[in-house]
Amino acid sequence: MYDQPHQMQNAIGKLVPHISGKTNLYLIGFAGDSEENVFRNEVEFVEQQFIRRFDAAGHTLLLENNVATLADRPIASLTNLDIALDAVAKKMNRDEDILLLFLTSHGSEDHQLYVDMDPLPLNQIAPEDLAESLNKTPIRWKVIVISACYSGGFIDALKNSTTMIITAAREDRTSFGCGTDSDITWFSKAFFADALNQTDDFAAAFANATQHITEWETRDHEKPSYPQIVSTSLIEEKLKQWRNGIHLGAPVRSFQSRPQKPAPIRAKRVRALSRCPLILLGLPNVENYRDKPASID
Fold it and tell me: One MF term in GO for this entry (predicted)?
């Protein structure tokens, strides 16, 4: 935890300012759960896809909870997300550029995004937490993609006239595809690895991804996840300006065919948790630390 300011400065130092003459897209990726590599895999794949295919070199910043990346990447915490959003806001042209915020983890029925870097008891992220973090910045144009169970529960807190929101599931449904043997969730495979390798239009990619997810769920007799999209004419026009200015690269295909029976993303039940005394943990006051959730659905 003491190394996090250094890690964040290293990550921020790699960001480049707005490139004039076109709408730029900046990506922040957030892999919340350290217990499964699938979340790390997804944000790293999306970063490479947007660098190589969507002209976003120098405009990406990843936050990851994974033991393999502790020395290389900042952890995914609410505090680091606030710092990342502030840093990107200072690099971008706030009137012209777009933020793509991609969050992937487990999600709970009471609409909290699971954040874990064992043994640190980090805060979970509720819809109002994410809304507050975004509202503290002057970033106007946003695409927010949340891959988690019950992620549709974030929509009401985040929606506005200049934001597109895409979620892997409705507020009352689970999504599928995590597990120790999985490289990518069903939603991220369908939306990023498949659809956005065929089109540069987010809304069209969502329609394509939803069709494939429905086919997979029907085949495997799963309860439908019902991915969600909320958009407006303003953000659609801004995304069109971005598409007109990029030099579209070749498809990026790091993932092979989808496993035949991926495990469902189990929603981790997050209970009301008491705070830990920081003096006992011996840690700086950079997060409001809490106990870990006690059970998994």
Answer: cysteine-type endopeptidase activity
Q: Is residue 281 part of a domain?
A: no
CATH code assigned at 118: 3.40.50.1460
- Judged on CB neighbours under 10 Å (0-12, 13-18, 19+), 160 is middle
pLDDT in tens, 75-105: 999 999 999 999 999 999 999 999 999 999 9
Q: pTM of the predicted model, to two decimals?
A: 0.86
Q: 264: part of which helix (H) or strand (E)?
A: none
**Model pLDDT, residue 180:** 67
* CB atoms near residue 111 (< 10 Å): 24
Q: Which domain holds residue 88?
A: 4-11+24-172+228-254
Q: Is 185 part of a structural domain of the chain?
A: no
Number of domains in the chain: 1
Could you give the count of Cα atoms lying within 13 Å of 168 in the half-sphere of its Cβ?
32
> Tens of pLDDT along 265-293?
444 434 333 223 222 233 333 344 333 33
**269 belongs to a structural domain:** no
| Sheet of 163-167, strands arranged across | 60-64, 25-31, 98-104, 141-147, 163-167, 228-230
Please indicate, yes or no, if residue 193 is contained in any of the structural domains.
no
Closest CA to 286 of 295, 278, 294, 297: 278
- Helices 127-135, 78-91: axis angle to 10 degrees equals 30
